Amino acid sequence: MDNKFKKFPFDDLNRFEKEFGRMIREFSPQRFFAMQDSQISPAVDIYETNDNFIIYVEIAGLADDDISVTATSTEITVSGIRRRPNIPGIIGVHQLEVETGRFKRTLNLSSPVDPATTSSVYEKGCLLIRAPKKTSNRIEVEIKD
Q: What spatial distance separates the first Cα and last Cα of the chain, rounded to whole Å?
């Protein structure tokens, strides 16, 4: 694991955070009532560079037109629906772990972005959103004598 991307400098806290997230996902209502479609919560990573926020959303098994991305100057919302596959001839179900249904994640950003130039690409089951930071309109005003 690359240490420069750790959220916390303490190894034990980082492992606990990861494990706790996995436990919460495994105890979701979809696991207990898998045949019912309900809201799912895809995993999201948010990275920041000097110029952009990069948002990485894990949403495998969707068509492009099943995904919607909206942006404001302070937040990005990803929503859509993952449908259960239509498989003819099924006579029984032995295991259902793939969550289906609607999802919506609204991500608050720590500094303003330019929604007009925000872009996204969906490939290999992941959505990559690039939200350029809004440049400050603030200028230094010279004081003349």
A: 57
Evaluate whether 107 touches 76 at the Cβ level (below 8 Å). Answer: yes
CB proximity list for 71: less than 8 A, separation 6 or greater:
77, 113, 115, 118, 131
Write the single-letter amino acid at 83: R
**Which of 52, 68, 34 minimizes the C-alpha distance to 109?**
52
CA angle at 57 for the pair 87 and 55, rounded to the nearest 5°: 160
Instruction: Please tell me the pTM assigned to this model.
Output: 0.68
In this structure, the number of other CB atoms found within 10 A of the CB of residue 55 comes to 23
CA distances from residue 23 to 17, 18, 32, 56 in whole angstroms, order as listed: 10, 9, 14, 21
Instruction: List per-residue pLDDT tens for the chain, 145 residues long.
Output: 555 655 556 667 777 777 777 666 666 555 555 445 456 888 999 999 999 999 999 999 999 899 999 999 999 999 999 988 889 999 988 888 788 889 999 999 999 999 999 999 999 999 999 999 987 666 678 888 7
Q: Which two tokens stand for residue 32?
A: 């207990």
